[in-house]
Amino acid sequence: MTHQVPIIPSREDLPGNVASDRLIDTYLLKFDRVATRRAYRTDLTHFFGSIEVSLDEAKAVSFVLVNKYIASLESTGSKTSTIRRRVAAIRGFYDWLHALGAIENNPAHRQLIRRISSVRTKDRAIIVLTSDQATRLLSAAASENARNHAMMLTMLHCVLRRSEVANMDVDHIRPMGKYWILDLPYTKGGADQYVKIPEHVVEVIEAHKEAYGIASGPLWRSLSRRNEGGRLTPTSIYRIVRATALTAGLPEIGAHTLRHTGCTLAIEAGASIQQVQSHARHKQIETTMVYVHQRDRLRDSAADYINLDNKND
Question: Measuring CA to CA, how many Å separate 132 from each of 112, 139, 153, 228, 290?
């Protein structure tokens, strides 16, 4: 669905004096996290075919059109998680317009659109590294440079999302009594959170700061000539982790694998589910339980009881 020529109504047509041809950008102002704004902008642009959407164009969307959009995503092989995310973005956008009084009904209301298969997180395979593999990854990172080693060590022990890593500043690491903590001002679970950071990780970070002369501002910075000294982006962090893993002879992984690995290693070492939930900042205990379910499912599986050597003649 692509609108080549936006129809721009007068400003009076939209409650709240919202710029009528920039509805998406105005809607995104309600979100404080950069990653959230980026994801919703991508999904809504994909649906409308343009970042510039007028109120008339938004009103022209019916539940039939939303259902056809979902069908097209399914027919082109989009993942269930992707479809659900895009529909959630559309529904949220129209909920906002409804709250403004700009529309009477949400065309993406759950009772109007086709059922989308649920994502069974419990049954989804999560890629994690063993303790030995994590050690190999960190060794490979240390051989590359002080930044990569300190960054991946922090990601593993603090089980951080890559957006959280990218947003880290020098002054986010500070003492609290006899412990060290990492402040997370802007994160998925809400503002002003923090996690404990082990003292030996702080020491490695201090060595990283000294090596690159970093005293304030962004903690993780680009080393490339094109953007030397600039803050690393979440995409750059993903690429660094993936490249280092390949150097270490490990399977292809992403930055989130270190978060999964940290949670899993903590559970394997005896941390309680509640401790891991708190450290990982999971809103729901069910999210944390995924790591336990996968471990238990693989530890004692029916596959281990299949023995073809005991055949009856």
Answer: 50, 11, 14, 33, 22
Residues ≥6 apart with Cβ < 8 Å to 122 = 286, 289, 290, 293
- Mark whether 60 and 90 lie in a shared domain: yes
Chain segment 249-282, per-residue pLDDT in tens = 998 899 999 999 999 999 999 999 999 999 999 8
Residue 41 lies in a domain: yes
Residue type, 199: E
In the numeric block, the tokens 């982790």 are attached to: 241
Q: Interhelix angle for 146-158 vs 234-247, to 10°?
A: 100
Residues 40 and 138 in one domain: no
CB 222 within 8 Å of CB 230: yes
114-130 pLDDT, tens digit each: 888 765 555 567 889 99
Q: Report how far apart, in Å, the C-alpha atoms of 9 and of each of 13, 28, 57, 177 are.
A: 6, 20, 10, 58
H runs (alpha helix) in the chain: 23-28, 34-48, 55-59, 63-75, 80-100, 131-144, 146-158, 162-166, 199-212, 234-247, 255-268, 273-280, 285-299
